[in-house]
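User: Design a sequence. Structure:
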């Protein structure tokens, strides 16, 4: 009976050490190259006076030789220095080694207080409007790291307004 209890303890200890060893391997980020995150598209789902709904479509490129789990996204999108939206989304996806994945995040906002600035920016539909995307993703399921990014660019409203 004593030897059976002893072997059970040894087996439990071995399983526990194996589990912690596996977690340490998952949390090792010394060789992690930062993924590249791109805001591909902002799709208007619904636009009412006091609430606007958009879908933000993102692409994540993984430069690493191993798959990269992504568990959370924090974001802020400004258009002509007007905050379009900001928030946090829990996501659960794995980006393949040296591959990419796309995903969509639904957002809500209220641009009513900025309506004058938005209308003024849209008066010249062929004039570029600057935008900025700031955000971070959390890599790993348990013990990951945050990867921060900022993207600046311009959009031409006339390209998105139907004639």
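Assistant: Done.
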């Amino acid at each position: 009976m004593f030897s059976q209890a002893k072997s059970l303890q040894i087996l439990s200890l071995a399983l526990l050490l194996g589990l912690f060893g596996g977690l340490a391997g998952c949390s090792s980020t010394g060789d992690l190259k930062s993924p590249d995150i791109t805001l591909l598209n902002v799709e208007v789902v619904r636009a009412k006076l006091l609430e606007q709904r958009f879908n933000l479509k993102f692409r994540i490129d993984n430069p690493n030789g191993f798959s990269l789990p992504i568990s959370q996204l924090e974001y802020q999108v400004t258009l002509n220095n007007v905050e379009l939206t900001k928030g946090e989304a829990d996501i659960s996806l794995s980006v393949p080694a040296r591959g990419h994945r796309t995903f969509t995040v639904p957002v809500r906002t209220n641009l009513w207080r900025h309506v004058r600035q938005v209308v003024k920016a849209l008066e010249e539909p062929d004039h570029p409007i600057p935008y900025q995307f700031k955000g971070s993703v959390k890599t790993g399921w348990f013990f990951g790291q945050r990867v921060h990014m900022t993207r600046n660019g311009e959009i031409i409203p006339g390209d998105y307004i139907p004639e």
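The CA atoms of residues 47 and 53 lie 6 Å apart. Residues 11-29 have pLDDT under 50 and may be disordered.
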